[in-house]
Amino acid sequence: MALTAPATETFARAPSDAAAAPRRRVLRGGAFGLVAAAVCLAPVLGVLVAALTAGDARWDDGMARLVRDSALGLAGLLLVGGGGATLIGVATAWLVTVCEFPGRRQFEWALVAPLVLPAYVMAYAYGGLSGPFGLIPFEITGFWGAAFVYAFAFFPYVYLAARAGFASQSVCALEAARALGATPWETFATVAAPLARPAIAAGAALALMEIAADYGAAAYFGAETMTTGVFHAWFARGDKALALQLAAALLLAAFVFLALERHARSLGGVAGGSARWRPLPRYALPPGAGLAATAVCAVVLVLGALLPFGYLAWLASLRPASDWAALAAPLTRSVLLAAGGAIVTLALAFAIARLARASKTIGRYAALAAGAGYAAPGAVAALGALAVFAALRDAGLIGGLTGAVAIAALIWTYAARFASAGIGPVDAGLARITPSIHGAARTLGASAETRLWRIEAPLAAPSLAAAALILFVEILRELPATLILRPFDFDTLAIRAHVYASDDRLAQAAAPALLIALASVGPVIALSRRIAAGRPGAAAEARSDGA
Amino acid sequence: MSAPTAAITIAGVTRRYGARLALDDVSLALPAGRITALLGASGSGKSTLLRLIAGLEPVDAGEIRLGEARVSAPGVTTPPELRRVGMVFQDFALFPHLSAADNVAFGLKDRPKPERRAEAMRLLDLVGLAGRADAFPHMLSGGEQQRVALARALAPRPRALLLDEPFSGLDPGLRAELRETTLTVLREAGATAVFVTHDADEALYVADLLAILKDGRVLQLDTPRAVYDTPACAAAAAALGPINVLRTQVKAGIAQTPFGAIDAAGCADGPADVVVRAEALRSIATPAGTGTAVARVIDRRPQGAVDLVRLESQGVTWRGAVDPASPLAIGAATAVAFGPRGVHCFPVSGG
Fold it and tell me: Which residues constitute the domain of residue A220?
C-alpha cells in the first residue's frame, strides 16, 4: 500500500565543512539522528527478540496447518501476484516508452492510477463486483482473488521502474538496433529488456515487498498468507509465540526483498553508455497493432483503477446522508492520527537526513536502520511495538497499552515504518543548502540555532511539505498496524472500511474506502509528475511534443 | 606613521586531507587595511587557506591570529560565527529565500528592524544596487549577485573580508567592471581583504600585496611589482606570466644560452636556472653586439596587447612576446636578444 519508496544512498553531497568539523561536534549534532535511527529499528528488533524469547509455540495439527498454509500461500501469491504485476508492468512500460499508438501520452501518466486504491480497497470493490449477481459473473475470492488484486494493485511499481529503465537507455543503443534491422519485438528482447533488467528487478522487488506486507486484501478474500497467519495465531489461537515467530519469518522475507531491491538499483548504472538525450524515437505501430496496444493499456487501466473506483463511487453515491455523517468521527480520527504520524515521521526523517549530511558513514547506517523499519510489514512492526511496550510495562515505566499510550505506540509504529520514505525528500530539500550557503551564514555570525530556523528550515520547507503530504496519505491508508494497536473502539476510515467489508456490508464500506482513495489522488499525481520529470531530456521532449 | 600591524597572522599552518598536504607550514602576516591576493593554480591550497582563516576548517598545526586573538590552533577553532570575518563565496551563496536587502541585513543583529533595513540599503547603494533591494537572488544577474554578496559580507563590519575567486564565474567585460567596483568599495571601507584568484592579471591589478602559492607552500609574499621584478624562485616567476627556464652554467656573471649570452649579474659562478620572461625578448634587424643569436620563428599567435612567438635555436624552443606591429614572420630567421630586464638567475645548490 505504499506510495513511497525507501531511502537509498542519496547522500552524495555532504558538505565538506561538516566533514572537516571536529568529530565531537558532528556527534552532538547527530545525536537526534542516532535516536531517530534507534526509534525506527526498535520494532524490528522487538519482533526478533520477542520471537526468540517467547518460548515454544503450541504444537498441534492446527499449528502445523497454519504454518504450512501461510508459507505456501505467501509463496503462491508472490509467484502469481508478483509475476502478474511484473508482466503487466513491463508490458505497459515498454508500450508507452518505445511504441507510438493512439492514446499513448495519456496512458503514460494514467497507468499509475491504480496506486490511488490500496489493495484492500480494490479487493472490496472486486468482492462486490463479482459473484452470481455481479457485473462479473464469477466469484473473485480466495487465493486467485488476492493474486488478481495484487497484480493490478502493485503493477505500477514495476511500470514506473521499468519505464524509467527503458527511458534512461541510450537512444543510440536502440537506434543502433533499429539500424541493424531489428523489429520492435527483437529490439525489446535483445536490447531494451536486458538493459532495463536491473530497473525491472527493483520494481518487482518493491511489488513483492508489498504483497508480503498486505493484510487487508488477503483477509477479505480469505486467502491465506503470512500476515493472515500472524493474525490467526495471535487472535484466533491466542498463541503469541507462534504469531511472533511467523512475524519474524515474514520480516526476514521482507528483508530479502529489500536487499534485492537495493542490489538491483545499485546495478541501475548499467544503462549508462553514451549519454545523448533526445526525444525517444518511437515505433509508430501499424494501425492494427496500435489499436491492440491501446486496448491492452485500456483494459489494464479499467481493471486496475476505473472499474473498482467507479464501482465504489457509485455505491457510495447511493448512501444516505446519515451514512456520511457517521463518518465524521472516524474521518477526524484518521486526519489527526495521520497528521500526528506524518509530523513525527518527518521529524525522524529530518534528523536522519541531517545526520547523514554531517557524517556519511554513520548516516548510512542510520538510513539502513530506517530502511529495515520500512521493510517491516505493518502487522510485524505492530507486534514489535507491542513487544517493546510490554517490556516497558513489565519494567513499570508505563501502564497498560490503552488510550493515549496506544495512540503513542501507533504513531511510533507509523514513524518507524515510514521514516525511510521521508529521508529522500528531506535530503533533497537539504541539498538546496550548499556548503557555501552554510559557510556564508556562519561567517555572518549565525549560530547553529539561527541557521536551523532562518536558513535550513525555510529552504527545506517546500520539500518537507510535499513529503508530509505523502506520509499523511500513507498513514491514512495503513490498515494492519492500526488494527492491532488502536485503542478499543478507535475507528479510523481504514478500520471502518475493513470492518464493514468483513461484515459483507460492502455498500457501507464504499464511503470510507472512497475517501481514502480520494485522499491518495494528490500524492499519486505528484509521484507521476516526479517520475515524468525525472528523466534527463524530459523537458525537451515536452517541448517538441507541444510543437 | 606607525608600522602597519598585522591584521591576520598565519604562523606555521599545516592542513591535511587524509594523506594529502593541502597546506604545508604556511606563514604569512597580512597587514590591516590592505588587499592581499593569494595567487596559485587550483590545488595550490589558496582556497583552503581562506577557509582556515574563516574558521570553516580546523588547522592541523600552527596557528592563526586575528589581531591579537588566537582563533585557530590544533584542537582549538573559534567557530566562524564568532570571528567577525566576512566571506564572499565563489558561487556567491546568496540565501535563495531572502530578498537582496534581507540577504544584506542577515548578519546585522541586535538592532531594531528599521535600522537594519537602513544599513542594508546603505550598503546596497554602495554597490550600486539600491534599486534592486526587493529582488530575490534568482531575479538578479550574476554581476548583481556578486555585488549583493559583497554588500552582505561587508554589512556586519567584519575585521577582515575574504573573497574566494569572486569574479571567476562572470564574463570578462563584467569582470573588469566589478573588479573596479569591488576595489573602490573595499578601499572606501578601509577593509582588510584577502582575495583568492588563479588569474595573474587580476592579482596584479587588485592586490596591494601578493602571495604566490604552490603545492601548499607560500613561494613569495611581496608587492605585485616586487614579485614581478624580483621573483623568489622560478615557480614564483612563472605565476605572473609565460617564462622560459634553462639549466645552464654561469661564468663571470654571464649565462650562455642558445639565444645568446645573457646577463646574469649577481649570480655566483656555477650551475643555475636562468628564468627569462617572454616579454624580455628583443628582436634585432641585424646580428650585432654580444648577447645576440639567430633564431627561427616557428609559431606566432596574437595574444591581445602582444603577439606570442615561439623561437627555435639549436634545438631549444623559447617563448617570446613581440609588438603586434613587428614584421617577424613564421619561418623567418631573425637575430634575437633577451634581457636585461625580465631575466632572473637562481643558482642550483648541490649541482
Answer: 31-542
